[in-house]
Amino acid sequence: MDTGVFRVMLRMEVLPGKGAEFEKVWHDSAATITGQPANLGQWLSRSAEEDGVYYIVSDWLDEERFRAYERSQAHLEHRGRLHPYRSSGAMTTMRVVYDLAGAARRP
């Protein structure tokens, strides 16, 4: 069963010693993404295994509207704010097939 949700996952390697600054800039500019009408939410995670590695996950109503945002000036400006902190990165996209709530998330 396809939920219709389009998920984007970015793996970012942040320059040594810049993690705290990166996290603050990401948090302070996150509304650029979450304010998009087609955005369902966004998460920043720090790797527990690799120093300086972060994962950014965002969910979208569909690929078409994510791609429209990706081509926008707002996206270029957002990327520009994060760029000084990263040494490399990669993007993976996917479609959510199932979304099952765990026991701790259920009422």
From TrEMBL:
| Entry superkingdom | Bacteria
Q: Which UniProt keywords apply?
A: Monooxygenase, Oxidoreductase
For the keyword Protease, the answer is no
GO molecular function list: monooxygenase activity
State the top-level EC class: oxidoreductase
Query: InterPro entries from the xrefs?
Result: ABM_dom (IPR007138), Dimeric_a/b-barrel (IPR011008)
What range(s) does the ABM domain occupy? 6-94
Its Enzyme Commission number(s) read 1.14.-.-
Pfam families, sorted: ABM
Q: What is this protein called?
A: Antibiotic biosynthesis monooxygenase family protein
